[in-house]
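Q:
Got a chain?
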Amino acid sequence: MDYKNIIITKESGYAILQFNRPEVLNAINMQLMTELVEALENLDKDDAVRCVILTGNEKAFAAGADIKEMADASAIEMLLRDQFARWDKIRKIKKPIIAAVSGFALGGGCELAMTCDMIIASETARFGQPEINIGVMPGAGGTQRLTRAVGKVKAMEIVLTGKIFTAEEAKEWGLVNKVVPVEYYLQEAKDLAKEIASKPPIAVRLAKEAVLKSFDTTIESGLEFERRNFYLLFASDDQKEGMKAFVEKGKPTWKGK
């Protein structure tokens, strides 16, 4: 499908979704989010795609929300607009999503990167939740996901001061997987996507579910969920193929069944 605000490129085993609002540093508006969710849901149904990369350009992953859409809105207008319902749909995407971040990932851009399952950052990446500087606070998960990633005291500092932090700081605090020179950040994300795409897709899906479940429940319930998914994989052809190949010292061929 043709989109105005995103560009989709399909590679072998994975897809790249690139924000396409360079004139406003990929600021996130409602139309972009609508297109993004629709594209992700379509790719989630595409058996040829086993992993998705979300990216912007070298200057900006996404510099924040489009403030012009919200500046004059009332509380009731914002409530009825229910713009965060689109963000909730991203959480339900079954395939792994990698954020490839260069330049600014601020406000909604930082929150969008944190909705992804992994983050590869360029050395020029800059993260932050500066909403406090315009009289509001993070509303798309920033207070929750950032706190889970970096801890209470650091999240409190970032959210209450609007501090912008570097890619190296983000890596040190556990927010990103890897920091590489700007000319390699997208290739690094592609390499990670290729590796994940080479794994058995049903096992990848259930493993992602189990990791995410750890944020939503107690350790007891999480372990129960993990075991259920572990047992369920013994109904798959890929489990039989993988274990047979291991025993026979061969290379498995995944069917996704």
